[in-house]
Design goal:
2 domains, alpha/beta, 170 residues, 5-stranded mixed β-sheet
């Protein structure tokens, strides 16, 4: 038996075959279980049903149906990429690509976003400065709660458990 093993070891083709077969036996179970654990989402419906974060899918349907006036939208930072994908005809305030960008006043867009979404003093002036036409907010954020309780220049036109949409009062 030892002579047969030594003969196999000396045969480089056979040695490579044994190594590759051993590696395949080890890796095969990993790859066969992978599809059960990972899914790739290509369409909005799957993204909305299977996504890890709650996205404003129903609000997007409402926006597409109602065609809200104005192109400049203040929305959630976390939703930026999704909204750019679903509603490319609108300009969204901030998304994952821009928190580090500097502006003329040296305040990062993400910092401005936080001041607005937290309804900090001057939030409404910042929206005016950025010529914001309407708001797509996560439900129950500070700004959403503030707008529900205070008489402001914004009127709610849509709400679900994930999001709310406000337009400027006329």
């Amino acid at each position: 038996m030892q002579d047969k093993i030594k003969a196999i070891e000396k045969n480089s083709i056979m040695t490579k075959f044994v190594y590759i077969t051993s590696l395949a036996v080890f890796i095969f179970p990993i790859f066969t279980s992978l599809p059960k654990n990972v899914s790739i989402i290509y369409d909005q419906d799957s993204f909305c049903r299977q996504g890890l974060l709650p996205y404003p899918c129903k609000a997007v349907e409402f926006i597409k149906k109602e065609k809200i006036d104005g192109k400049n939208v203040f929305s959630s930072y976390e939703w930026g990429g999704f909204l750019e994908w679903q509603l490319p005809e609108y300009k969204f305030f901030v998304d994952g690509r821009m928190p580090a960008w500097e502006t003329k006043n040296k305040e990062r867009p993400y910092t401005t976003y936080l001041k607005i979404i937290q309804a900090q003093e001057g939030w409404d002036k910042k929206l005016e400065e950025h010529k914001t036409d309407w708001l797509l907010l996560p439900a129950n954020t500070f700004l959403d709660l503030y707008l529900q309780e205070q008489n402001s220049n914004w009127k709610e036109i849509y709400r679900d458990k994930i999001s709310a949409i406000y337009i400027k009062k006329e």
